[in-house]
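Hey, quick one: can you model this chain's 3D structure?
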Amino acid sequence: MNGLISFELKKIIRKRSTVLIIITALLISLSSILFGAMTETSYITETEKLRGFQAIENERNIQGQLRGYLTKDYINQINIEADQNNPNYWGILPAIGVQEVRLPNIISNLTAGNINGIYDNILKGTLADKPRPVGTSNEVDKLLKMYEQVQVPFYFDYYDGWEKMSSSFSILVALVVSAIIVICLSPVFSEEYSQKTDAIILTTKYGKNKVILAKIISSLIFVLSIYLLFGTLNFTLHAAIYGLDGSNANIQLHGWYYQSPYHFTFLELNLVSMGLSLIGLLYIAVITLFISSKVKSPFITVILSAAVLYIPKIDVSEISYTANIILDLLPINMMNAAEHFELGVFYNLFDMALLQPIMMIFTAAIISVLLITFTYKSFKNHQA
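Sure thing. Here's the predicted structure for all 384 residues.
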């Protein structure tokens, strides 16, 4: 069996198209991270600013000096220094002062039967007019319990490296790594049809059992390998450019997460986001294999799999909020994992209020098991 898995894995990896798309994706990833670093800015006075790597180093030094728990006394002390026009503190202290009081205000304003405020406060502009559901008492109770676990005062440190690591990797997996998986796995079964080798495989000793399993297992190993490759690249570059300071800083210090009910540090956010992204990637891999087992053209398989992957990214919340949160359960939205920890979104399942990441994992697991079973039977029982 190991020999069959190795053979099928080599069939995927040794294709010229596989090598080309991986190299292209690596260059795109490297370029986007470096470009982002080069566009960083840091003010040294109200009018003067640094750019690029100098800006990153300046912010790292300044914010590192402010490392500590944001107690009222500590914030007052820093604000006094800011009032004295200390240029080293310009541009960061107002944010610290605001963030520290936002979370308690959100908790006190949340009322049973109406969960709208927790969502609407974070929206901007015309987005505030979007329809939102009325939260059940179960949802409100769970949300309040989550907020009770978010301990204040928050711990502040320079966290840019960890924040950018999580956000950029989520986007990288959703848009780039997923494309590699769709393109490289589309021929796994459909190429056997197009090259008329399916009949030969099915008449061999292990054709109707072990070969099919080997194809599925080797495909999942390929997914894990690609994920680790790009995950290592993302971590190494961000660590080298921004450093690893701020792993213990609370995610609520960042503007995207100030309403988050998740009691996470930036290190924990990265770990759970990477896990959710990986599940989403395996999810689209299984979908691609299923389509490949049903379609006799690798090209058509790519088109159909890409449609399943990217179409759910269309925002339909203005048409139907319910439809939008259902689409959130599909692979590309799972892979864009970091954004799902900004708010406490619930799904009601059999009178249980399940958090969105939990519902995503549950849905992906159930559908993936079913699709793997259907894929196995589809190729095994088809007429060559």
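One thing worth noting: The beta strands are 41-43, 49-51, 68-69, 155-156, 346-349, 352-355.
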